[in-house]
Amino acid sequence: MFRDLNGYYSRRPDPPPEQPPKRQLTPRQQKTLLWIIAFNVVTLFIAPIGGATVIEALLSSFKP
């Protein structure tokens, strides 16, 4: 017996779809992001000191 598959067996698989190009930040966005990161690093060290000073001031104001 012979079964005709209409060329199904010799068909190559479809190529995968092309990936869209990855988005990149513009130079202005990179500069802004750098400033935000720098600001966060600075506040990482300054905020605990300032927060301790404010808490100390509040505690001393409630003491008789």
Secondary-structure blueprint:
Blueprint: H1 27-62
Task: Please tell me about this protein's structure.
This protein has 64 residues and is mostly helical. 56% of the residues lie in helices and 0% in strands. It has one helix and no strands.
Keywords:
64 residues; 0% strand; Transmembrane protein; transmembrane; 1 helix; mainly alpha
Compact summary:
This protein has one helix and no strands.
DSSP helix fraction: 55-70%
Helix/strand class:
mainly alpha
Total E-strand runs: 0
Rg, rounded, reads 32 Å
What is the makeup of the main sheet? none
Secondary-structure element pattern, one letter each: H
Uncertain runs: none
Mean pLDDT level: 83
User: Terminal Cα separation, in Å?
Assistant: 106 Å
Shape: elongated
Number of helices: 1
Strand-residue proportion: under 5%
